[in-house]
TrEMBL record:
This is Thiol-disulfide oxidoreductase ResA. The gene is resA. It comes from the Bacteria. It is found in: Cell envelope. It comes from Fictibacillus fluitans. The lineage of its organism: Bacteria, Bacillati, Bacillota, Bacilli, Bacillales. Pfam families: AhpC-TSA. Signal peptide: none annotated.
Length: 176
């Protein structure tokens, strides 16, 4: 009788463990890079966010320009490493029709303003306090970047730290 009860407990435990693994895998697949790929070729989800100077900025204002929407956090090490590259590419290509909308995920205006000053950012730095833009772009890991063509369509999406070759290639292809 005890052996039968023990087997039943082991079976229940194994079944519960299998259920947790299945749910975890389903969540992982739902929030993985595959979701970013569903935006490619689609109109970019519009958003209206305040910048660090309390001015409302709307993505649609960038129509006609090649725009990089970059999601980041001040605590994110890859984001910190990526910022000087973004600033460099913005300085180099802004006059040719390239724009960056830098979207901070859920941090205070003061923290973001200090970060922008520290990295000497001259492109628009936006506050996504309620993560509305992040959800629209399926962003669950930082940094995440999306290149939007001059017609307002998402043409590239990447989760992780961009490198110079990758970003400059995107920009030059978009500006053609």
């Amino acid at each position: 009788m005890i052996a039968k009860k023990k087997k039943r407990e082991i079976f229940r435990f194994a079944l519960l463990l299998l259920l947790f693994v299945a749910v975890g895998f389903a969540l992982y697949k739902h929030y993985s890079d595959d979701n970013k790929q569903t935006l490619i070729g689609e109109p970019a989800p519009n958003f209206k966010l305040k910048n660090i100077n309390d001015k409302t900025v709307e993505l649609q204002q960038s129509k006609g320009k090649v725009t990089l929407v970059n999601f980041w956090g001040s605590w994110c090490e890859p984001c910190k490493r990526e910022m000087p590259l973004l600033q460099s590419m913005y300085s180099k290509y802004h006059n040719r029709g390239f724009e960056i909308l830098s979207v901070n995920s859920q941090e205070s205006n003061l923290a973001v303003k200090n970060y922008a000053q520290k990295y000497h950012l001259s492109f628009p730095v936006l506050l996504d306090l309620e993560n509305q833009a992040g959800r629209a772009y399926n962003v669950y890991k930082l940094p995440a970047s999306f290149l939007i063509d001059s017609n307002g369509k998402v043409v590239e999406g990447f989760e992780g730290e961009l490198n110079k070759k990758q970003l400059e290639g995107w920009i030059l292809e978009g500006l053609k």
